Amino acid sequence: MENFLNRKVLLGVSGGIAAYKAAMLTRLLVKAGCEVQVVMTPSAHDFVTPLTLSTLSRRPVLTELFARDGTGAWTDHVHLARWADVLLIAPATANTLGKMAMGLCDNLLLACWLSLPERTPVYVAPAMDLEMWRDGASRSNLDKLTARGVRAIGPESGELASGLTGLGRMSEPEHIVQALREALVGGSKLSGMRMLITAGGTQEAIDPVRFIGNRSSGKMGFALAEEAALRGARVELVTGPTNLRTERPGISRTDVVSAAEMAAACKALAPSADAVVMTAAVADYRPARASDGKLKKKDAVLRIDLEPTEDILAWMGANKPQAQRLVGFALETDDELTNALGKLERKNLDLLVLNSLRDAGAGFGTDTNKVTLLAPGKDPSALPLMSKSETARAILDRLEESL
Ligand code: CTP
């Protein structure tokens, strides 16, 4: 399966002749699924035009830390650095690598590098002439950086712009993208997979202003969608009404309101999905007839007839393509394990995530969850109380094991 690289890439372009390859690199990153924000050093402008890179990245290119037009405007390098999933500097010239090693900060790219959160991976694709690469200062600068966790891609050996032949050529854009893919998502079996993930609760109309809903916040489904996308999956996220947002590239979002809308969206997307994770709290009943006008208050008891909605997960289990993995959620308050195991079998699931409302910190609206994972023929595995992102990681680890 083709690996997908869906990361927010801060692409630093410094001023060497290989900067002309930054255009192709930008294009390939965008094509692979990345969002690319280009930051050029001032001297990179001598080699490649910002217009080329802004057109290909679909974002204005940034260069200056401070506007020089007297407006006092400045670029928020801290925010920019926090936005990025990965900093890639290509080409990384001897000058830029030297400044990075020394902690100098005389341009926006260096300010971003210094402001980068510790967890953010940094890749550099050095590019310089043979002797510059061989030079002791270049060596020790790169050694300093790699000792701090910076990873170098290349350089490669070959014909150099000077006419000399040897080490110093920037790696080809294809190789850089491939190296990033392998390093960032290559290890995951979800990489390149199509996943359908549902989130949130549905709302069933009583009249134009009222509905029957539930307390689902959507946080678990969004955490799963983000984690799956980070592992390289192409995620279709179908969500009920929620204020949550996601900026992760690789997630395509469909907003729905009712169980019927969720069913329609899911039925359209499920057949082409390699895995489906049904996190949404879908209403089991809806008003048999939603009133066209707003119901007026009366003194008598109001009765609303409810009719069952379609069980989407059961439909998916019954129509599951052979290689598809189907993950359901269950919320039980009594006879938890017995009920959950029944659901696992009845709905033809490969994995069931059992929520228990009895556990403090688990369930609706919280940022934490405590779940038990059930798979056919396996002992239940009870996970400790964890953040919803950690729970998402554990669920997807388990899904990967089954692939
Ligand atoms: N689900 C669904 N369609 C529905 C109701 C539920 O697809 N109309 C899915 C949920 O997304 C979840 C799973 O079914 O993955 C279990 O939901 P839950 O409410 O725990 O159980 P139900 O199947 O509705 O059964 P019960 O009410 O008997 O517990």
- Assembly type: single chain
> Radius of gyration, Cα only, in angstroms?
26 Å
The figure for the number of domains is 2
Molecular shape: elongated
CATH architecture classification name of the largest domain: 3-Layer(aba) Sandwich
Summarize the amount of helix as a percent range: 25-40%
Mean pLDDT comes to: 94
Sheet-strand content, in percent, reads 15-25%
| CATH topology term of the largest domain | Rossmann fold
The set of bound ligands, ions and cofactors reads:
cytidine-5'-triphosphate
Number of E strands: 21
Low-confidence stretches: none
Q: Major beta sheet, specifics? A: 8 strands, mixed
For the record, what is the CATH homologous superfamily label of the largest domain? CoaB-like
End-to-end distance: 13 Å
Q: For the largest beta sheet, what order do the strands appear in spatially? A: 12-11-8-13-16-17-19-20
Q: Could you characterize the architecture of this molecule?
A:
- The protein is of the alpha/beta class and 403 residues long.
- The chain folds into two domains: 8-184, Rossmann fold (3-Layer(aba) Sandwich), CATH 3.40.50; 194-401, CoaB-like (Rossmann fold), CATH 3.40.50.10300.
- The chain is built from 13 helices and 21 strands.
- Helix 1 packs parallel to helix 2 (50-57), helix 3 (77-83) packs across helix 5 and helix 9 crosses helix 13 (388-401).
- The longest helix has 14 residues, at 388-401.
- The relative contact order is 0.10.
- The site of cytidine-5'-triphosphate (CTP) has 15 residues, from helix 11 and strand 16.
